[in-house]
Amino acid sequence: MTDETTALATAVSDEAPPAPPAEAPPTPADHSEGPTPYRSVEMAPAAEPRVSRGMTLWGPVLSIFGVLLWAFVVMGQLVTTYAPGRHELLLGEATGVLFVLGASMAAWLRAVRHSLRVSPVNGRAKRVERALSLGILALIGWGVAMGVAMVIGRAVSDGSTTFLMLFIAAGAFFYGRRLLGQSKGSQPQARSIVAIALWAGAGLITLVALVTLGAD
Q1: Using one digit for the tens of pLDDT, what is the confidence trace for 84-111?
Q2: φ, ψ of residue 89 in degrees (nearest 5)
Q3: With 75 labelled, which of 25, 91, 160, 182 sits at a CA distance of 20 to 30 A?
Q4: How much is the pTM?
Q5: For residue 18, is it within any domain?
Q6: Domain around 132
């Protein structure tokens, strides 16, 4: 009986499958060599394009200066010229002053609006500072131009000085518009009609001033 039990146990042990080998404990992943595929990558914010000083400062200043100098020269010519018949001046002095102030104020407001649109600032104080800086620089330029006109006027005739000042005013205005990068095609139709009317009026006033200058 003992021999039979031993033989049966031996047969059972031979038929049983071998036990699977023990698995080694998983080793923790080493993150020191590099980032894992699932780690989020922080992206640096894209830098905003920087607006040039020509669009925010010098373009507006030159446009204001050009309008101011042009208005002063043409009105100065008209208020010092007698009307046909030599009884009274062609234009009153008060009208000339109002025209210069109105044209300069309109150019100043337009330039400030454009400067703040292309380069906005926060706070009313900074907006006022920007507006005042544009106006003051344009006035300084006008004062320099008047000083140059007085110096040149001693050597040449008044007519030549007037032509020179008109040339400087036109050059400053158009170069300022170029720095501003204004596009005619981007303007609405109603605004374009107003701009055409203003250009026609300015051309007519300039032509009258030049005619009276030639007559004198």
Answers
A1: 766 677 788 899 999 999 999 999 999 9
A2: -70, 155
A3: 182
A4: 0.72
A5: no
A6: 53-215
